[in-house]
Amino acid sequence: MAIREATWADILPASKILAKAFKDEPAFGEYIHPYRDQYPEDLYLFFLRYLRVEYYRRPDHVMIVSSTDDESGKEERITGLAYWIRKRAVEIKPSLYNRTMIQAMESYNYVESFAYPNRAAEPSRVNVMEQVEPFQKHHWSGTRAESWYLAILCVDPACGKRGYGRQLVNYGFDRAKKESVGCSVISAEGKEDFYQACGFDVHVGMAKDAGGDENPLKDVPGGSIFFWDNGIKPEGIKSYGKA
Ligand SMILES: CC(C)(COP(=O)(O)OP(=O)(O)OC[C@H]1O[C@@H](n2cnc3c(N)ncnc32)[C@H](O)[C@@H]1OP(=O)(O)O)[C@@H](O)C(=O)NCCC(=O)NCCS
User: Origin, by domain of life (predicted)?
Assistant: First the structure.
């Protein structure tokens, strides 16, 4: 069992694993993709288009994959993906090359979506993770402004409960330990115990706590926000709406 940084070639198989893993998850599955039962083959397009763009948000955005090896140690196929983001008090911009590639991928996605629309999705909901950001970003302030944030985690359901998920989580904890910062995650419904077992020991609230009716996730189950503070006493953490 090995993990390594994702390459461009991993993006397509990883998006298919994400589609399987998140099909019936309340936010990415049910909320964003209400038509997924009619068009199950379209779901991966959401993740494909997301990963294509995110792949170029380096150096603070890191995609890791887990894989199975054959008896000779040669990699057979990938089994899961984690997308870790180093959140900082002062963000480091991607290079000019990467910024250009991000724009190119966004344009490519836009044009491709005419030929291959994601019919499983409700178009008004595909940007929900960006829409909900203002209601939760106060948690990443003060001493928690610096952390490794687990933005996406999935393991192929056919390979579940074999330790891949924990291994992909450990990657971020190892980076955080080296940099003396914490880790953070927003949990899907039913995965809270998994994350706590992996070391996220502080529950600070829910993604839907703030914003009332304006928060698009207000009726979506899940969204527990967890931190691991790496022994750093939390100080200067803002409340919602405080500048
Ligand atoms: C969550 C997920 C990544 C776990 O991956 P996994 O490879 O099955 O997890 P592991 O085998 O590494 O499990 C690690 C530990 O957590 C436990 N665990 C796994 N899933 C769990 C769950 N849903 N609830 C409670 N404990 C769980 C395991 O039993 C194991 O405990 P142990 O080390 O004491 O034996 C995987 O189930 C998944 O991709 N789910 C769908 C997508 C998703 O919800 N991702 C998270 C979004 S925030």
Answer: Eukaryota
Q: Can you state the percent helix, strand and coil of the chain, rounding each to 5?
A: 45, 20, 35
Q: How many Å lie between the centroid of ligand 1 and the Cα of residue 136? A: 24
CA distances from 182 to 20, 93, 233 (A): 30, 21, 11
The position carrying tokens 């993740």 is 47
In the chain (243 residues long), the average pLDDT of successive 10-residue segments reads 92 98 96 98 98 94 94 90 97 94 98 98 95 94 97 97 97 98 98 98 95 93 97 95 74
Q: Provide the domain count of the chain.
A: 1
- Is residue 241 in some structural domain? no
Question: Closest residue (by CA) to atom 5 of ligand 1?
Answer: 165
Classify residue 221: in a domain, yes or no: yes
Q: Is the CB of 190 under 6 A from ligand 1?
A: yes
In a domain, 125, yes or no: yes
Q: Supply the residue whose CA is at minimum distance from atom 10 of ligand 1.
A: 163
* 155 CB near ligand 1 (under 6 Å): yes
Domain contains 242 = no
d(CA 181, CA 1): 27
Range of the domain at 103: 2-228
